[in-house]
Every structure is written in C-alpha cells, then in structure tokens.
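In the present case, backbone shapes were mapped to integers, as reproduced here:
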Amino acid sequence: MAVDEATKKQDELELYQIDDAAIVPFFRDHLDDLKKFVDSHKDANLSLLELLKQFIRTYRLPFNMHRYMEVQRTFIQQTLRSQLENKQAAVSNWIQEHAGRHRDRMIQLQCLYLERIKDSLIPQVTELLNHRIETLKTRDSNHDNSQNAS
C-alpha cells in the first residue's frame, strides 16, 4: 500500500518532534522489562538495535509521554479543523450538485399540496386577485381624472 504525500509529511514532522533526551531515560525506566525482553529473544540473533525496536513495538510506549500527549492533542485539533473544513466543502459540493434537484422536488411537492387544498385556496386567491384588480382600476381612474383636471 502506497503512503500518500500528506502521510509522509506528517511522519516527517512527528519524527522531528521525538525528544532525543527522553530515549535513554525511557530505556532506563523500563530496564527490567527490557532485560527480560532481550533475554527472551537471545536465540533470535538480532542486533541490540533490532531488539530495541522490537521492544518498542511490543510495549507500545512513547519515549516521552508528556510530549506524546502534546503532539496527539495538536494532531487531534488539526484533524478536527480539517474535518470542519471538509464538512464545509461537502456542504458546498452538495449544494452545487443537488440544490437544483432539491428545489425541483420542493416545487413539485408544493404543487401537489396546492392540489390538496385547492377548494379552500382558490376562493381566497380569487378574492385577493379581484381586490388587487379593483385597486388598480381605482388608482388608474383617479390618475386619469387628476391628469384631465390639470
């Protein structure tokens, strides 16, 4: 499986955040476990470096827990920020791709609803239109009368 460029950059960034000063104290703090581990793997003919790597993989402990937690906190914050940005991009993408269909569907539903309420709606809209027509006629008539009077 290929590692993408973003993962490589993240790995490089985290690699440089390892606390060199904590490495020897880490092994000193875990010396009893390390000795048992080395003794249990003496038949494997591995170098001490390989055994140290295996020890770290087996026990899965960071060299500097405080630093590890700080890096993890930063990574979590970046990830959440990225997800928020991705969420905003997803909403924008949805709008671009689906808003027209969504609007068409809403218009269709509104038309179907008008069909359901037509018996009560039509008389009300008819009355509104008639009132508006009468208002316009009256306004036009008054406008014409005022121009003729001038």
Observations:
- Residues 123 and 129 are 10 Å apart (CA to CA).
- The mean pLDDT is 80.
- Helices lie at 5-15, 23-29, 31-40, 48-59, 65-116, 118-149.
